[in-house]
Each structure stands twice: as C-alpha cells, then as structure tokens.
Amino acid sequence: MSQNTREKKKLKDKIDPQQLKKIGNFIFKERDYRFSLAILFVSFIACVLFISVVLLVVSIWLLSHFGVIGNFTDNPSSILVLIIVGQASVLISFGISFFLVKIPLKPINTLINHMNRLAAGDFKTRLSFGKRMSKNPTFKEISDSFNRMAEELENTEMLRGDFINNFSHEFKTPIVSIAGLAKLVNKGDLDEEQRSQYLSAIESESLRLADMATNVLNLTKVENQTILSDITEFNLSEQIRACVLLLENKWTQKEIELSLDFEELSIEGNEELLKQVWINLTDNAIKFSPVGGTVAIELEADGESVTVSVKNSGEIGESDRKKIWNKFYQADKSHTTEGNGIGLAIVKRIVELHGGAVGVESENGKVCFSVTLPCEQL
Predict the structure, then answer these.
(1) Which of 16, 114, 355, 357 is least surrounded by Cβ atoms within 10 Å, i.e. has the fewest?
(2) CA distance linking residue 34 with residue 18, whole number of Å
(3) Strand 266-270 and strand 231-235: pairing?
(4) Please, are residues 299 and 289 in contact by the beta-carbon 8 Å criterion?
(5) Overall number of domains in the chain
C-alpha cells in the first residue's frame, strides 16, 4: 500500500462515518463548525480591538502631554495601568469571541456544506438559513441566488441526460435500418421489386442520417456563435415566400392549403440564418398537419418589433410546449414522424442571436409558432 493511500485511509478513519458524505466520486464531511474559519474571524476581531486600544492609549497620552486633560506623563504608572487594562480587554474579547463565534459563522458553514454538495453533483440540494435568518434581506438574497443556480444546474443535467438518450436513439435507428436492409440485399435472393424497395429505403435512411448530421453541425455553429455577423437589409416577405416554394413538394403531397397573409416588409439581419428559421418552422407545420390541413403564415409589424406567425392544424400538449425547444426532443414519442428534434432548437438560438423571442400556442385544434424580432436589433 502506497504512502498516499495509507494517509487517505487514516484521514477517512478519523472522520465520523455518519458525517461522511459521498456523492458520485466526491467524498466530503459536512460540518457545523470550521476551526480555521473561526480562528480567522476571531483574529480579525482581535486585531481591530487591539488597534482601537492602541489608538485610545496614544490619544490619551497626547491629550495629557499637551495639557488638554490631566497630566499622565508625570505618572508613568497611570499609563502602564491603561496599557494593561487595554491588553486585558483585548484578551477577554478574544476569548468571548472564540466561544461565541459559532453563531455568526453558522450561515457560512451552511453555505459551504451546500456548495460542497452542489460541487459533488447533488443538484437537488436547496439552501435555507432558517426562518429567522431568512428574513434578513442579505441572507434571503444569498439563498434565492443559490437555489436558482442549483435549479438551473438540475435542469441542465436533466437536459444533458435527455440529449444523450435521444441523440443515441436518433443516430442508432437509421444505422440499424441501413445495416439490416443491406444484409437482406446482400443475400441476393430478392426479386427486382423487393431489391428496389430495399435500396430506396437504404437511400432514404442515409439521407435522413446525413440531414441529421447537417442539422447537428448547424446547431453547434449557432450555439457557439455569440456575435451576429453578416447583417444586411433584405425583403423579409420575399424570403418567406421563397422558403415556402422550397418546400413545395412536401405540402403538395399532403394537399396542404397554404395561406400567406402579409405585405412587403424589409428588415436588417443575417439573411442566411433567418432563412433557416422560416424553413424549419414551415417544414414543421407541414409535417404535423394532417392530410388536407391548413398552414397559414402571417407577418405583423408595429414599429417596435416584427412578428412572424406560422399556424397549422393540430395540437401540442402543455408538457410538450415546455420542452419542444430542447435539442432532440420530439413530441412524437414513437419517433415515427420524420424529423430529429433539432430544427426548433436551431430556430430558438438564431432568434436569440437577433435579440428576439420565440413562442408556441395550441388551442382549438390549431398550433401557432411565433417569432418576434425587435426592430432596433434588425
């Protein structure tokens, strides 16, 4: 056994097992009292008291020396008594502070313990200083900030887990399909029609995989982008009409009735990025509309902002509306619908880069996605 290992074992043996906390690979001891912190706090108090006493003695001596008060300089014992009394006061204050310091340091110990739990990955931990102390505005601000941070980290961790699961599923499914179909084709005991069907399916799954990879790259690109570049003025109305035409094959196949209700409007922004927004939203509306359904695109401007609304037939549950902008999230749990749950995440990030906001509403058999862009940013 190495020296390091022996020392770690000795250290663990000294710790009360009931106080030892282990979260993941992180081991720590929750403590109500920290001696080093107490020494630091008491030393600071003692230094302040000592400096105060020294200043008091010097002040009295100077006042006495210049005759403002009784003459202490002729009676050195008076000065000595004053110094002794001052030193005794410092020592007594130091002793009292050392025994009572646990009370004011309790919130700090509580905060450190909760920070240790958070650092260990326990994102469900929440900070509370007790009923009385929580009424103090400062401690309330600390606990509120800590709890918001813990909640955000918990949500991020959940999102990371969902992302990994969905990402693995979305990539594995087409790969397994391609491998299985290729194996059937490779056997060679198929007629021409079956062979053609399997090859078409392989092509379709390959394109789906390529499309997914492209979307992941696009999402990574816009997520890492912090400054909006290549800002130009362009005709927004014309851009939306062009995006609809690019998807003509999809909406004609489903016999979708399209309604474009807007006038000509020019804006400033990143034309290429905003083009992805309108294509993704329109494609999403077509995808989830029933055969023979309707898709309507409206554009409104009020001088302060521009709002583009994309409406389609269908419904989205309340729980889905909260998660629909997450990466790889799909309302269709069976994953039978085309798509990979990346498009709306890209939309949200691009709109945020433009200083805008996205939203979704669903009522009376209609779903409405809205994008609001502030004119000042365009």
Answers:
(1) 16
(2) 17
(3) antiparallel
(4) no
(5) 1
Q: Directed axis angle between helix 236-246 and helix 271-288, to 10°?
A: 50
Tokens found for residue 195? 């062979």
**pTM attached to this predicted model:** 0.52
Q: What is the pLDDT of residues 164-204, one digit of tens each?
A: 666 676 677 788 888 888 888 888 777 888 888 888 888 88
Q: Would you tell me the crossing angle of helices 35-65 and 102-119 to the nearest 10 degrees? A: 140
* Beta-strand runs (E) in the chain: 20-23, 26-29, 231-235, 257-261, 266-270, 294-301, 305-313, 357-363, 366-374
**Any domain includes 52:** no
In a domain, 257, yes or no: yes
Q: What is the largest CA-CA distance in the chain?
A: 124
CA 122 – CA 28 distance, rounded (Å): 13
* Domain CATH number, residue 311: 3.30.565.10
Residue 286 near residue 251 (C-beta atoms within 8 A) = yes
Q: Do 233 and 268 meet the contact criterion of CB atoms below 8 Å apart?
A: yes
Domain span at 291: 226-377
Give the contacts of 344 (CB within 8 A, at least 6 positions apart). 280, 284, 324, 325
